[in-house]
Specification:
It is a single chain. The protein is α/β, with parallel strands linked by helices and 694 residues long. It is built from 24 helices and 13 strands. The strands form three sheets. The protein has a six-stranded mixed beta sheet, sandwiched between helices. Strands 11-10-12-13 form a four-stranded mixed beta sheet. Strands 2-1-4 form a three-stranded antiparallel beta sheet. A hairpin with a 2-residue loop joins strand 8 and strand 9. Among the domains are: 130 residues, no CATH class; 236 residues, no CATH class; 118 residues, abc type-2 transporter like fold (3-Layer(aba) Sandwich), CATH 3.40.1710. The structure holds adenosine-5'-triphosphate. The site of adenosine-5'-triphosphate (ATP) has 12 residues, from strand 2 and helix 1.
Length: 694
């Protein structure tokens, strides 16, 4: 059997594809075992076999998308993904089984997209589009792919593979769902393009009989090639009238060989040898015999190039991918508005609902004062009416009201409140009874900390205002012996919104970027779009960069709207540099994108991507000191908090906005440094995972 298929098939000097001793498995599932296959240059090769036998897997190994564990593959003279090789790239036209088309594209957009990647000129693209539309009987080129029928989509997908007139066509079931007339036209076209010997085609099909038009057919079963020969020879050999019956016969004899091998390995080996000798003149190759020979061949596998086939990114590809993203955005205005407005909605809700002062707190007032001064009344006038709603009732109704949850507390005055209060202020020595009678008695429902704190604060403010009224310039006599001077940073009455806003801005930007990146990559991978672009010559680095650049545009709009709302609408104070604020938020967005890349490289379906994004969101929000100061976090967790991407970034933004600090302060540059470090880490991690999982 030396020389393999080349020695027995007529007049093909070179092979377009050569596979020798190829093994490939998904985890423990061995899909290709010791497989040998030769696609002669300038011929059509029909790869046949039952569902699940490994045809698609083999094609993906041939285009370099899957890594083989053993053996050798040569495509157009070099291993796939060899540096500088056009496979993947312009030399190969790949039509995957799962169509892999952008639903939001029109037919014309689809061809333009692949045309840009292959570096076709506008004129070339236009003329190919006109030809393909006519040849593949496609509807108007302005029709959206998502509105096409299954068969029409399949033809668009075939058109994308034919677009650049590649030297090698790899077509995974291009004729499924295509009517017999068009099927015959497609075969006719394939026969035409291979005529001059420059183009080779490997095609899989479930319609075994249509493969009779191929120059060679390979019959695959259980990851092995049972036979490889011109169809007529194969039928002749088995005395079969159809290719299907020849295939059945081959399967049966392969089963018999396998069971005999199982019963008596030595005997079976002899038999196989005899059988292969018998077949030597018959153009039939049993995979067992050919494979034994080639497993000894040196293994040549290129796996150093994690990015595909070129190390330096091509701007042409990045531009094509960015145009793709913008076209898709244009076609999905609802989704675009959602992306732009979501951060604004989130920050607005946060500013409106968190950190504000409670309003209309119902409080029962029990005023038993009977003397003529009515200081109690004067003090109640100073109580902020917008926050505290006073309801005058008697003692028993007040207690019952608090117990029923009707009031948040009771403010009580004794019968001699005014008299005793005056005595307390004026006299040097007073009894405890006078101090007690001159005090406002407050019973609070303390189950709601924020409301209870507000009531305490409002009563304190009311008392201060009242004392000023009563004592005028001598009011200091009744003040606390603690004086809060003008604050060094911030205002005397800080609000919680000012504290939470910087952290909220950072986490909204970060998680939106995580979610959008992870989802878009996972969806594209699932639909086979990433694979198809990769085979067309786009490297993973270019895909990442294009996503980053387009996402930066989205982020620019998001951040502009976010800051307009934060500073102009909600008037959150800012003492620092707007430039630093914008850069830090952008960097956090980029960290989010890189984390999204990590998730999408590790996760295969959108549900898991959503779960992962959500799963990270809440713990991160809680532990990063965004909602509550990190000083409240117990120690082991505080170390974890410090290591998270948002803790120091939120702190830095807070320092810029509230204290007006710049990069000279450690708390500010530390936020930038940690953000950049996380960026680098996530990008390296995504690259490593992509390399491992490729
Ligand atoms: N990503 C994957 N992970 C794990 N197993 C896989 C994966 N892709 C395919 N397989 C398995 O590998 C085997 C071969 O699949 P493959 O898609 O190559 O078959 P096929 O011959 O192309 O089938 P069909 O004609 O139905 O498309 C099948 O058992 C399939 O379940």
């Amino acid at each position: 059997m030396s020389g393999g298929i080349e020695s027995i098939l007529p007049s093909w000097s070179e092979s377009a594809i050569e596979c020798r001793g190829v093994c490939m498995s998904y985890g423990k599932l061995n899909v290709l075992s010791n497989l040998a296959l030769t696609v002669p240059q300038g011929h059509i090769y029909g790869l046949l076999g039952p569902s699940g036998c490994g045809k698609t897997t083999l094609l993906r190994c041939i285009v370099g998308r899957l890594r083989i564990s053993k053996g050798r593959i040569t495509v157009l003279g070099k291993p796939p993904a060899f540096p500088g090789h056009g496979v993947p790239g312009r030399m190969v036209g790949y039509m995957p089984q799962d169509l892999a088309l952008y639903d939001e594209f029109t037919i014309s957009d689809t061809f333009w997209f692949f045309g840009r990647i292959h570096g076709l000129t506008s004129k070339e693209t236009e003329s190919r589009i006109s030809f393909l539309i006519e040849f593949l009987d496609l509807p108007e080129k302005s029709r959206l792919v998502r509105n096409l029928s299954g068969g029409q989509r399949r033809r668009v997908s075939l058109g994308a593979a034919l677009l650049q007139n590649p030297q090698l066509l790899i077509l995974d079931e291009p004729t499924v769902g295509v009517d017999p007339v068009l099927r015959s036209r497609i075969w006719h076209h394939l026969l035409e393009i291979v005529k001059n010997g420059q183009v080779s085609v490997i095609i899989t099909t479930h319609y075994i009989e249509e493969a009779r038009q191929a120059n060679v057919v390979g019959l695959m079963r259980n990851g092995n090639l049972l036979a490889e020969a011109p169809p007529e020879k194969l039928m002749q050999q088995h005395g079969a009238l159809t290719l299907e019956s020849a295939f059945l016969e081959l399967c049966q004899s392969s089963d018999q060989s396998a069971s005999q091998l199982h019963m008596n390995a030595e005997g079976a080996e002899k038999e196989l040898h005899q059988h292969s000798e018998d077949c030597d003149e018959s153009f039939l190759i049993l995979s067992g015999s050919i494979n034994q020979e080639v497993t000894e061949e040196p293994k040549l596998r290129v796996d150093w190039n994690m990015w595909g086939k070129h190390i330096f990114p091509k701007w042409r590809n990045i531009a094509a991918l960015m145009i793709k993203t913008f076209v898709r955005m244009k076609r999905m205005p609802g989704s675009l508005c959602f992306q732009f407005l979501l951060p604004v909605i989130q920050i607005s809700l946060m500013c409106l609902c968190i950190g504000g002062e409670p309003k209309e707190i119902q409080v029962a007032v029990v005023n038993n004062e009977t003397d003529g001064l009515f200081f109690s009344q004067s003090l109640l006038w100073h109580l902020d009416n917008s926050s505290v709603h006073q309801v005058f009732v008697n003692q028993s109704k007040a207690i019952a009201g608090v117990e029923d949850g009707q009031y948040w507390g009771i403010i009580g005055f004794g019968a001699n409140f005014s008299k005793y209060l005056l005595l307390r202020i004026m006299e040097k020595q007073v009894t405890e009874q006078i101090v007690d009678g001159g005090s406002v008695h407050v019973w609070l429902d303390m189950t709601n900390q924020q409301i209870a704190f507000t009531l305490q604060l409002k009563l304190q403010e009311a008392f201060e205002g009242f004392i000023k009224d009563v004592l005028g310039i001598q009011s200091y006599l009744a003040s606390l012996p603690v004086k809060f001077e003008v604050p060094i940073y911030g205002s005397k009455n800080p609000d919680f919104t000012t504290f939470i806003a910087p952290g909220a801005i950072v986490s909204i930007t970060f998680f939106l970027a995580v979610g959008l990146t992870a989802l878009s990559f996972v969806m594209e991978r699932k639909q086979g779009l990433l694979d198809r672009c990769w085979v067309a010559g786009v490297s993973s680095l270019e895909t990442m960069l294009a996503h980053l650049f387009s996402q930066l545009f989205t982020m620019a709009v998001q951040i502009t709207l976010l800051l307009i709302f934060v500073f102009l609408v909600f008037k959150i104070p800012n003492e620092g540099s707007l430039v630093l604020i914008v850069i830090l938020i952008f960097l956090q967005g980029v960290t989010g994108i890189s984390m999204g890349l990590v998730l999408s490289s590790a996760i295969d379906d959108e549900q898991s991507a959503n779960q992962a994004s959500l799963g990270i969101f809440f713990p991160n929000l809680i532990i990063s000191g965004i909602i509550w100061p990190i000083e409240c976090i117990p120690y082991p967790l505080r170390y974890l908090s410090m290591a998270l991407p948002q803790t120091y970034a939120a702190e830095a933004l807070r320092c810029i906005m509230s204290r007006g600090w710049g990069l000279t302060h450690v708390m500010v540059w530390r936020g930038f440094a940690v953000t950049l470090a996380w960026n680098t880490f996530f990008l390296i991690l995504a690259t490593v995972i992509l390399k491992i999982r490729r």
